[in-house]
């Protein structure tokens, strides 16, 4: 990935503009449907993707990631780098220049004070800011002058582009939110529903979890944009209905995140009203192996903790056999179609961090059987399930409730059955499974099962904190109220040391090397994580909607200012 | 009867307080986390901070009494302020939703129009269709009309809305293109044109919901009419020379209404929060959708408030039903 | 004087011993039930469905969970008369396996709800002292939000039931109880309403005046007279239970995800409504047929229990 400043495909935009004969508001109305409805317009108060996407129409960061994962300036004047002096040699500070002449939608000028205020707003300990991780290591945000702001870090920051970039940390107006800091953050309903922004649209009416009416921002920096005068942002329903509304009935122009079987989407596209578009980020559907014993016979507090290692999943041969028995190509074809690629990697992208392993793409049932045989796991009593020393290869396999995941479960159960591993399936309501309620036995963190399947990704383009999640100290345990991201309970001092090294390395290619090594340690070498599918995001757009560039590194609506109506 | 009604109304206060406590404890006990929908990219420490900001760090009883105070004291004051322009509730904290960070009541009020237009309307339509069907089916038991009615209502009831809703959308929106598949909640009915639009978008959800209501109520109506049609008093009435209409529609109907009244009264509270699947399929986004999304997001203040309001309706409509029993059949006495 | 003929009693007035042996009430009910064509047809259809789903799997070569990925999304053929699903599982086998679960869950849950509802309804209606507490209890249950209630039930009872009855039996009990305890309230209120009116009627007064005990009063006089609303509740209840079971699966409260049931088959197939419309047809038909069959049997039983109709 290159971090050099890129002039947001200026030529391409000129091309589009002439094609659409754009003039602000000349293309009338556009309809967008998100089947999960946004509940608030302030991404700092909710980590939800839907809210972040809706808010990105109104409030913007200094720079966004484009569809290739490269930073492009939005409110800033160029991207600061070490070469152009914007990033300090010691990597302890970054100085952003703001585009001159920027205005908020209420007509007041946009200044560096707003940037500083945003940082203070989120870093307030009582505010419960969801994007706090973006500001990790920030010691001070200094206003140099009205158009210059410097972010100081505690120590050298190999990736100084965390704060104020991407969809997760847009700039909010200091004047509007002055009374809403700290504990008062949640009392500012009006501010959180009707933020004043610099983006292409302003909110006219916000109905939480239902519909948002927006209109073009009169003070948007490009006088010809947006091409649409008004927008309806409808929420609710389900993915099928959203896809139908764009692809089949043509009532809507854009539908977000169609998590549907590929043949269903293909059939909808045949109606000829629109097309499905896909893009890939870092989302990987994977099976996570529990290295501790989740048996219900253990006393509460010892169950699924490092005190009791797993009876058979601690054997690398078993883990490897489980991985070999899976046909990832078929899974991808059935579950995701063109929105997925079979993968053996935990970090599938960006290019410099991706290991691009291919060892697992071919299903090898016979090899898996041989491997188990060799490791001493044999079916001695003829019941079709292998055992060793009285331990049967019997697995409880859990995941969240989702049609594609249940199909995957059924298929994988059959393959594992073929190699002599018995599987019991369980599905859990997503709001319980992904919740952190320490009282519930069914959360994915508590992991009271042998293996579980879900998808995860990392924010932005830098995998450092994502890789750091498998360090020993992050093992969830009763003492930490089952908080922690290392849900495999994987613990390897060598891994921890490498993660530390990554944190102190600034050179990009060197970082890539370490990341690949870390990735291989938990996947290829130990099979603690069994990656299945590198998932893309599929959305649908109407044939008459132009300018859409699908982007998974930032919000999908990142370039809504450039959207226009294709006229026949 | 009046003393009975008053006694029941007074008694309903402790009942409702108890119900609110049970609902609160149930929600406390239920597994779930308001942070479940936050992406996994947000680290657990940050989620913990967010939970604390929601007030989840406080003990259960403190939060319960806080909710009670906000719901029973602050919200009514807000209402008074709203009507009379006073400022009683100024500066007081209202019941805030965890998802929206805005007052729960405001969102509930916002959801009323579509809930009443679609769900309440379908209930009325359903009852209006069901009563004549039930009466006539019983009067002409095993006639062609009765058989057809039985068949359609039973198939209609066995086919759940998650299927029938999608079916009508595929037929009328996708294939024929007559009706919109997505309900526009921002539509203001101001004239003939918008009224037509409103009707078009209402037709499908109202029909799907009404089918369920019709099936249920017409069956009870029919069964109850059948019980009464052979009674001696019917023969007496006929022997007196009363017209057939009077016999059936006055004498028999009145005596057959008790189970039907019960069913109708039981259904009213579910207008406000019961039509979850249908609302979701047609994107009506009424109170049912509000409740289910709040449950999924574990937005406890919202769930607590909406379910409690439904509980109030349940208790009230059961009192109404009990009073109506006495009106319909003066022999029923409660004291 | 001629002898006056002996005054012969008028033949019609002569007492004759009963020719037919005495018949019990239940015999009468059964005779009447047998002549009810709808009830008979319903009974036969239900019996056929039950036989098909419980014996069918022994005769049919495919297993409901066997995946043949090369044969996916097939239409009806000789090998797969009902076609296959998106993973190549045989739909007929899944319909039969699903029917076993749906019918057992539907019938037991409906019976549980019916018994609970009728019991509470009759007690509340009949005994004035119990009316208040029982009806407030009903109000409470009506008010509890269903989803959190079910989640709490799983949390509290799943592990315990699994260890006592084994995973499948345990989940079956959990589901039946979950559906039963959340759907008895309407029946209770309806039955109570009817009982309130019934107990003021003359025949109850008459029965009471000859010293009938409360128990006999309820079982002999009250219950047969509230049979028709109970029958309607039963028919509606079974449809409800089958659908609710599929909704429970989505909460992770139901059976394991590879376990087919009619409700789940219908739900899964809805997604493919446009592409493979035949897939929704079978579960939809099966549920409707079962409900209709029980409805007609209910009608027959109701008529048979009504002495005024009986013998007509």
**H and E order of chain C:** HHHHHHHHHHHH
- Structural class category of chain C: mainly alpha
CATH-level-4 superfamily name of the domain at 101-305 in chain C: MetI-like
Overall outline of chain A: globular
Measured between the Cα atoms of the first and last residue of chain A, the distance is: 38 Å
What's the tally of helices of chain C?
Answer: 12
The average pLDDT of chain A is: 86
Based on Cα principal axes, name the global outline of chain C: globular
Main beta sheet of chain A: strand number and arrangement? 11 strands, mixed
Number of strands of chain C: 0
Question: Can you count the beta strands of chain A?
Answer: 20
Q: Compute the CA-based radius of gyration of chain C.
A: 26 Å
Brief characterization of the structure:
The complex is a heterotrimer of chains A (568), B (335) and C (312). With 335 residues, chain B is mainly alpha-helical.
What does this 3D model show about the protein?
The complex is a heterotrimer of chains A (568), B (335) and C (312). By secondary structure, chain A is α+β, with helices and mostly antiparallel strands. Chain A contains 15 helices and 20 strands. In chain A, 23% of the residues lie in helices and 20% in strands. In chain A, the strands form 5 sheets. In chain A, strands 1, 7, 8, 9, 10, 11, 12, 15, 16, 17 and 18 form an 11-stranded mixed β-sheet that branches. In chain A, strands 4-6-5 form a 3-stranded antiparallel β-sheet, with helices on one face. A two-stranded antiparallel sheet of chain A has the order 2-3. In chain A, α8 packs antiparallel against α10 and α14 packs antiparallel against α15. Chain B has 335 residues and is mainly alpha-helical. Helix content of chain B is 73%, strand content 0%. Chain C is an all-alpha fold. Chain C has a domain of 205 residues: MetI-like fold. The longest helix of chain C has 36 residues. Chain C is globular and about 95 Å long. Chains A and B meet through α5, β9, α6 and α12 of A and α2, α4, α6, α10 and α11 of B.
